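User: Can you recover a sequence for this backbone? Please restate the input before giving your answer.

Assistant: Of course. Working from this structure:
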């Protein structure tokens, strides 16, 4: 027993104690005894002049901000980093080459444009990007979004022409004219995406990515993965079908493939399945033995080389009608201005591509930055991606962002800086300039297999559903809405629906706040929900009301109604009681001076007071009912982030109805109430207290000092 007491004393001695004794403070006292910092009195003109004032220090800071490479390249540790960056760059380039060819098919443009998009943007990001580990370039989701726009603006039906050598033959598809038009659409879309990202970055709009919450992005990308797989089925089976875009495009695409299933090219199917199995095994081995392997096994480039060799050696295109990549021009195209006449019809799509592309890039950049202990600038990332897209579009590229699979390769193989990305882009340049023609016999079914296997990670996102079910039903709803809407309505409309639904969930949460009555934990000065903690006890006659939402036009009525329900105080009833008491007092005073007084008293004595002397109306009779036992209410506003004029008027009306006396709130809310001129009339700063306990002690003191039975006062 003595040992337990000794241990308890030791615990008490070791516990950090908090003792303080002071008067009860209110806001009026604080304002007279604490000195506020002086507000900035500079004018807007002075601020603008200071902002745009040029100096060598500001010029240097602007240059370092726009070109982050200048912050690390001069001090680049060659001996420690160069070998790692070279190995990482070569490994990433080996993956980037086949993905560039494959994702061009998703964008509905010839494969060589995927190589262009794997060179120029990567080169530019080395100079303008702030992340050291992400690999920018072609990405399945963005490529698919571009492909949907391209097919909508340049469908096959626009390019059927009659052959010149006869009138009885059916129209044939002019593939060259179609591809040229689709490239123009993709290039103009990329230009507009770049402009939007640059403008957003200059306006410091890097925060827009927060509206694409993680469940929304994961549901959206899962649906995009389904769209990608469905779009590749025709290449895997070797059938020719129309490419669809817009709502229900996935359904129409599956229906079109199934309708042509009997025309499947067996050679194409066997080759595609072989590539699928091989890539899946390689991917599994890379994941399982990633700690033992110095670099990942480059399954994609192996598939490209082997399938190209088999296709060339066996003449699969000529003898077995296997679709191949076809002509790959050698060298780079000269810069050319986009066809800006196409801009009006692409504005909405460009916003969607710009936001999704930035969201993908910044989320992955932040993950690597956190892991390796450096920071990334969201606004500079917007500018970097915008410049990559805008400048590259003049060289016939389509929109890019970072790729998760390539970024993981670049990071896991020891990449330290964007020198690795630079080397990867130079590998792509070597192929474009010197050996691009080697890949002309590459079967399209092999590229389809590469695309499908790279999407396996996105399909694993279905595992989010059970975990979200356990943790947050609202986030699960966002995930499912993003997935279903994007799958059925298309990626553009699906993204719009998903963002709208996510915003609605925020409104729903503000409309359904958690409200509680707080009680005091003895000898602590702390207040907790009386329904959750047994030690939390209410003071007699005092209600401490807490709500975890702000008070504004959308929920002010809800706040007031919940307050009445939780506290049991009805301002309308209180006003009726007071009105009845006042009328009764006036009538009593008039009766004292009336000549009928003695007659009434005589009738009362004889027990003959009839109904004619009791014709008080219902309001006058209310005084007989006892007033509510609650004499004070404390409003705890620590969770409120803002209050608008509608909310302030609702609370002030409550002050008038219930003699509202005290609040507990934070300084920023107090400033807003000052701006709204809340503290006028019956609302004063004497009603505001720095802590809940100050307010409660004030209420107790006020009630104990009242000479008569108190009326219902709200604190």
């Amino acid at each position: 027993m003595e040992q337990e007491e000794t241990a308890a004393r030791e615990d008490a001695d070791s516990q950090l104690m908090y003792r303080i004794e002071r008067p009860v403070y209110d806001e009026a006292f604080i304002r007279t005894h604490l000195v506020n910092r002086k507000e900035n009195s500079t004018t807007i003109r002075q601020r603008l002049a200071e902002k745009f004032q040029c100096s060598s220090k500001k010029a240097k800071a602007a240059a370092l901000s726009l070109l982050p490479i200048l912050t690390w390249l001069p001090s680049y540790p060659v001996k420690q980093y160069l070998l790692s960056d070279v190995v990482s760059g070569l490994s990433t380039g080996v993956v980037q080459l086949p993905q560039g060819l494959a994702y061009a098919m998703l964008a509905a443009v010839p494969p060589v444009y995927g190589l262009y998009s794997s060179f120029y943007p990567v080169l530019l990001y080395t100079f303008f990007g702030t992340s050291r580990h992400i690999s920018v370039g072609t990405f399945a989701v963005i490529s698919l979004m571009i492909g949907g726009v391209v097919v909508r603006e340049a469908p096959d039906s626009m390019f059927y022409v009659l052959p010149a050598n006869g009138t009885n033959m059916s129209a044939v598809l002019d593939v060259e004219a179609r591809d040229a038009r689709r490239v123009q659409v993709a290039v103009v879309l990329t230009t507009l995406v770049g402009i939007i990202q640059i403008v957003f970055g200059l306006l410091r709009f890097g925060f827009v990515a927060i509206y694409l919450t993680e469940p929304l992005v994961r549901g959206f990308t899962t649906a995009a993965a389904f769209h990608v797989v469905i779009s590749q089925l025709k290449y895997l089976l070797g059938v020719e079908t129309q490419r669809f875009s817009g709502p229900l495009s996935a359904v129409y695409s599956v229906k079109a493939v199934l309708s042509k299933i009997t025309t499947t090219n067996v050679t194409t199917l066997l080759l595609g399945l072989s590539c699928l199995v091989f890539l899946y095994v390689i991917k599994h081995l890379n994941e399982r033995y990633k700690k033992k392997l110095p670099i990942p096994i480059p399954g994609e480039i192996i598939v490209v080389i082997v399938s190209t060799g088999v296709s060339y050696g066996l003449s699969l295109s000529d003898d077995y009608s296997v679709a191949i990549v076809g002509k790959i021009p050698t060298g780079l195209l000269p810069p050319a201005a986009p066809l800006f006449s196409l801009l009006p019809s692409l504005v909405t799509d460009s916003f969607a591509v710009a936001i999704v592309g930035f969201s993908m890039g910044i989320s992955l950049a932040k993950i690597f930055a956190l892991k390796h202990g450096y920071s990334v600038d969201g606004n500079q990332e917007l500018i970097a991606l915008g410049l990559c897209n805008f400048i590259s579009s003049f060289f016939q590229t389509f929109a890019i962002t970072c790729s998760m699979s390539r970024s993981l390769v670049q990071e896991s193989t020891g990449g330290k800086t964007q020198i690795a990305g630079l080397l990867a882009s130079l590998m792509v340049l070597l192929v474009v300039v010197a050996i691009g023609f080697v890949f002309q016999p590459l079967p399209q079914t092999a590229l389809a297999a590469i695309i499908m296997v790279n999407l396996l990670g996105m399909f694993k996102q279905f595992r989010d559903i059970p975990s979200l079910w356990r943790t947050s039903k609202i986030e699960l709803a966002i995930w499912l809405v993003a997935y279903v809407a994007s799958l059925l309505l298309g990626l553009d409309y699906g993204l719009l629906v998903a963002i709208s639904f996510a915003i609605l969930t925020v409104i729903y949460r503000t409309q359904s706040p958690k409200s509680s009555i707080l009680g005091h934990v003895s000898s602590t000065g702390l207040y907790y929900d009386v329904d959750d903690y047994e030690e939390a006890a209410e003071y007699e006659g005092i209600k401490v009301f807490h709500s975890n939402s702000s008070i504004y036009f959308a929920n002010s009525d809800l706040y007031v109604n919940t307050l009445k329900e939780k506290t049991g105080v009805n301002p309308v009833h209180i006003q009726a009681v007071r009105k009845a008491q006042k009328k009764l007092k006036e009538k009593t005073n008039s009766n004292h001076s009336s000549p009928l007084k003695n007659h009434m008293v005589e009738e009362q004595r004889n027990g003959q007071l009839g109904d004619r002397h009791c014709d008080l109306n219902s309001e006058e009779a209310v005084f007989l009912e006892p007033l509510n036992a609650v004499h004070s209410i404390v409003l705890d506003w620590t969770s409120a982030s803002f209050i608008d004029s509608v909310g302030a008027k609702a609370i002030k009306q409550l002050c008038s109805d219930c003699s509202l006396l005290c609040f507990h709130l934070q300084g920023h809310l107090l400033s807003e109430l000052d701006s709204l001129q809340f503290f006028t009339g019956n609302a004063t700063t004497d009603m505001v207290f720095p802590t809940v306990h100050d307010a409660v002690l004030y209420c107790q003191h006020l009630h104990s000092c009242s000479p008569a039975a108190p009326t219902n006062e709200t604190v």
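That completes the design. Confidence is low (pLDDT under 50) at residues 595-627, 707-715.
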